[in-house]
Amino acid sequence: MISDPEDKVNDLQQQKTAEFHKIILKLNEVLKALEAFSENYDKKFNVSKLAQYLNLSSNQTDEIIMLVLYFQELFKTVLNHHQLKKSIINHNIYFVLEKELNNIPLPQEFTINLSERKIFSDFIYTFKHIQRGKGFNLNEPNTELLKNLAELRKNHPYLFKQNGKNLIYPSEAGLKLGDLILSYNKSSKKLTTLGLESTKVIFKDNV
């Protein structure tokens, strides 16, 4: 029986699609694994062990490492202070950049009370582990956290940033502060002051 050339083409295309899907899944596993650094910046990440688990060759491992480090450099330099977005225009898919708004400098000193500390730590935890980097829409305050965030942002705008679609994110300084607070929450240490860049953050016990 003579095979249909079109069937061969379809089979080859399916094989390529399957291989590409496997590569994307493995890359996604590597990126997700980097979340292990959350609140644990002194951690040593065992790339060799992960590569073995994902059945990656030595060359594949090196290529993925180079790609991840390139992404890091790209977002620190070219895409700094911008949000990379997917946009569909006239049935074509584009990458577009939206400038991050409200990059307000930190004051020399500010105070956070116990209630604000709890709200902000909930915000950072939700942003990192539940939203996984997605913004919060304060125009739809349908949860207690969103209602509280709107007030917290008024009091401490430098801890937040906003993109062109009115989604709220933690600022770079806010993310650092949130990580520090989450770290202290796990310990029994009393939190009174913290150094955040050149800013002194004072924590009050009263709500």
Name the features:
three-stranded mixed sheet, three-stranded antiparallel sheet, alpha+beta, Arc Repressor Mutant, subunit A, 47% helix, 18% strand, 2 domains, 207 residues
Q: How would you explain this protein's 3D organization?
A:
The chain is α+β, with helices and mostly antiparallel strands and about 210 residues long. The chain folds into 2 domains: about 5-75, no CATH class; about 110-205, Arc Repressor Mutant, subunit A (Orthogonal Bundle). It contains 6 helices and 8 strands. The protein has a 3-stranded mixed β-sheet with strand order 3-8-7. The protein has a 3-stranded antiparallel β-sheet with strand order 4-6-5.
SSE topology sketch:
Blueprint: H1 5-33, H2 47-53, H3 58-76, E1 82-89, E2 92-99, E3 109-112, H4 114-130, E4 136-137, H5 144-155, E5 160-162, E6 167-170, H6 172-185, E7 193-196, E8 199-203
Parallel strand pairs: 3-8
Antiparallel strand pairs: 1-2, 4-6, 5-6, 7-8
Helix pairs in contact: 4-5, 4-6
How is this structure best summarized?
The protein is of the alpha+beta class. The chain has two domains: 5-74, no CATH class; 109-203, Arc Repressor Mutant, subunit A (Orthogonal Bundle).
